[in-house]
Design a protein that fits this description.
- The chain is built from 3 helices and 7 strands.
- It is of the alpha+beta class.
- It is globular and about 45 Å long.
- It starts with 25 loop residues before the first helix and ends in a 12-residue tail after the last helix.
- Zinc ion (ZN) is lined by residues 88-90, 130, 134.
Length: 178
Amino acid sequence: MASQRIRMVGDPVLRRRADDVTDIDSKLARLAGDMLRTMYDAPGLGLAAPQVGVRKRFFVYDVGEGPQVLINPVITETDGEWNYLEGCLSVPGLHFDIVRPKQIHLTGYDIDGNEVSLEADELLSRLFQHELDHLDGVLLLEHLDEEQRREANREVRKLQLERGESERSGGSGRLSLP
Ligand code: ZN
């Protein structure tokens, strides 16, 4: 199984809300396996299905405790605030200080179809919120203040120009930032 191409900022698939997973089956398990491989190759701590062009509500992650898959996740509670220098495999090379809730409670399903209910704090909580954003078509750029966003726009444009030159046929799409 090959590792997949990670979609980059400007790709419309990153801006669309993904659909609920209806079947947790061997096809999904294979896809999740490919995504984990892609995530480890990148390397990253998490990867959401839309980042490989799949409009389904699930993501894979590993924060040092082994590979995990979370399907149809829903945040049911949030508490506190936490600032973290956040990055994204779809916005490579850029990191932004972003404040989000510190703790969350999240429910969903694992790859065997079992219901899961998780408490997450700090890094794991941040990862869940970031990946869940991807399922809603939201990029971390949308959490920036105006000044950060102007700076980010410049950097993203630069990235896209560089990529456009090396990967002209990649179809990375037109830049559209809020
Ligand atoms: Zn991301």
